[in-house]
Amino acid sequence: MSLKSVNQSHETIFYPFINKGEDFVSEEDSLKIERSSPPPSALILNPQLQTDSEPADTSDQQQKIIIVQAPVFKHPSRLISSIVTTMGLVVFFLAFFAFSGSSTTNFDMLEFGFGGCCLLFNFAFIMEIVYYANLIAHNNTYGIGNGWANFNLVLTIVLVSLGLLIFTSNFVF
């Protein structure tokens, strides 16, 4: 494999990527990747420019590419959010079935169920905001796109705002 020009630089490039089913990329496969310039997410390590006076050696003119897989993002706020959401549903259904099973028209148990469910859902949405904020920081670190993470962050902020509005208007005043 030869490069087009003698004056082209010899570079070691760091490419973070997301695993798309490949277990690893061999050194032979990584040398087949030829780029004239690194993508925006690449980090160039030790660029060594070759001058006209140096002899052109084809093995030195090849780019050495190191492909490192970006680590999978995990954050405990996602687990907390799932647990709190489940607890909110359990509180709602327990209050609903306790109200429907009683012969009285006392709405206190049902109101407690609605309020508890709403409050737990809001807490779960706040945990989702924490998760997506950390996901965006992780994606920025490794040069991964943030389109859906930004959308989900804005959506959860809107849902928390609506949930807190419903909670305060129905259960506080």
Outline of this structure?
The chain folds into 2 domains: 10-69, no CATH class; 76-172. The chain is built from 5 helices and 3 strands.
Structure description:
- With 173 residues, this protein is mainly alpha-helical.
- The chain has two domains: 10-69, no CATH class; 76-172.
- It is 56% helix and 12% strand.
- It contains five helices and three strands; from the N terminus they run E-H-E-H-E-H-H-H.
- The chain has a three-stranded mixed sheet with strand order 2-1-3.
- The longest helix is centred in the last third of the chain and has 35 residues, at 108-142.
Radius of gyration computed on alpha carbons: 28 Å
Q: Work out the number of β strands.
A: 3
Strand content: 5-15%
Q: What structural category do the secondary elements indicate?
A: mainly alpha
Average pLDDT = 75
How many angstroms separate the termini? Answer: 75 Å
The main pleated sheet reads as: 3 strands, mixed
Q: Order of helices and strands, N to C? A: EHEHEHHH
What is the overall number of helices? Answer: 5
| Major β-sheet strand ordering | 2-1-3
Question: Would you identify the regions where 5 or more consecutive residues have pLDDT less than 50?
Answer: 1-38, 42-46
Give the overall silhouette: elongated
Helix content: 55-70%
Domain tally: 2
Features:
3-stranded mixed β-sheet; 2 domains; 56% helix; disordered N terminus; mainly alpha; 173 residues; 12% strand; 5 helices
Topology, pairings included?
Layout: E1 10-17, H1 27-32, E2 43-48, H2 58-61, E3 64-69, H3 76-101, H4 108-142, H5 147-172
Parallel strand pairs: 1-3
Antiparallel strand pairs: 1-2
